[in-house]
Amino acid sequence: MKLSRYIRSKWIAGYALPVILFLGGSASAQVYGTAAHTVTVQVSVITAVKVTGGSVNLNISSASVVAGQDQMSVTDQSTSLLWGTNSSARKISVSTNLAAPKFTLNLLALNPTQGTSAPEVTLAAASKDLLLNIGRSSGSCILKYTGIALASQGTGNDVHVITFTVQTQ
Questions:
Q1: Are 79 and 39 a contacting pair, CB within 8 Å?
Q2: Alpha helix locations (H) across 12-72?
Q3: β-strands 121-122, 104-110: how paired?
Q4: What is the four-CA torsion angle of 128, 131, 133, 135, rounded to 10 degrees?
Q5: Rounded to the nearest 5°, which phi and psi values hold at 69?
Q6: 24 φψ region: left (φ > 0), alpha (ψ -120 to 50), beta (else)
Q7: Taking a C-beta distance cutoff of 8 angstroms, is the pair 51, 164 a contact?
Q8: pLDDT digit string (tens) for 12-55?
Q9: What is the DSSP letter of 68?
Q10: Are β-strands 71-85 and 116-117 bridged in parallel, bridged antiparallel, or unpaired?
Q11: pLDDT tens digit sequence for 70-113
C-alpha cells in the first residue's frame, strides 16, 4: 500500500504537475468569442370575456306564481361571467339582441371579484353598465337573471342573445 502511494506521488510530481503548469496552471475555461442579440417582449391590448354555465331557461309556471298577484317572476343564478383585461379604466356593459321583448328580463352581477356591480339592469338593445371599475384585472361574478311577466301579458317566449362588452369607462 505504501509503495503504490509512493509511485503515485512520483508520477504526479514527474509527469502530471509539469503538464498542468505548461497548460497554464488554471482549471478555468478559455473564452474564444461572444454573441449578443436583442429580445423584445411586446404586449398588446388584451380583453377576454366568457360566460360559463350554458344557456339559461327561465320558466314561469304555476309553481312560481302567487295567487292574486299580477306580477310573476323567476330567477336563475347558474351562470358566471369571467373576464380579463390589461387596460385601465374599463367596465363591462350588457345588451340583448331583442329590440322589443314582451316580458322583462333583469340582470345583476353578484359577488364580483374585481370592480363594482352596477344596480340591477333591465336588459334592452341599448347597452347598459353591468360592472364598473374592473381596471387591469381578471375576475368573475355570478349572473343573476330575473324574468318578470304580468298575468295580463298572457303566454309566450322571449329568446334573448345577451352580449357582454368590455369597454372604456
A1: no
A2: 17-22
A3: antiparallel
A4: -110
A5: -110, 135
A6: left
A7: yes
A8: 555 554 545 455 555 566 889 999 999 999 999 999 999 999 99
A9: T
A10: unpaired
A11: 899 999 999 999 999 999 999 999 999 999 999 999 999 999 99
- pLDDT score of 19: 47
All domains of the chain in start order, with CATH? 47-168 (2.60.40)
Residue 156 Rama label (left phi>0; alpha psi -120 to 50; beta):
left
Contact between residue 75 and residue 144 where contact means Cβ atoms under 8 Å apart: yes
Residue whose C-alpha is closest to residue 145's, from 116, 115, 123: 123
Quote the cell numbers at residue 55: 344557456
Q: What is the per-residue burial (b if ≥16 Cβ within 10 Å, else e) of 49-72?
A: eeeeeeebebebeeeeeeeeeeeb
Q: Which residues contact 106 (CB under 8 A, 6 or more apart)?
A: 120, 121, 122, 123, 145, 146, 148
Query: Could you tell me whether strands 90-96 and 121-122 are parallel, antiparallel, or unpaired per DSSP bridges?
Result: unpaired
In three-state secondary structure terms, 114 is coil
Which is higher by pLDDT, 64 or 103? 103
| Owner of C-alpha cell 436583442 | 38
Residue reference for cell 322571449: 158
- Cα separation, 51 vs 54, in Å, equals 7
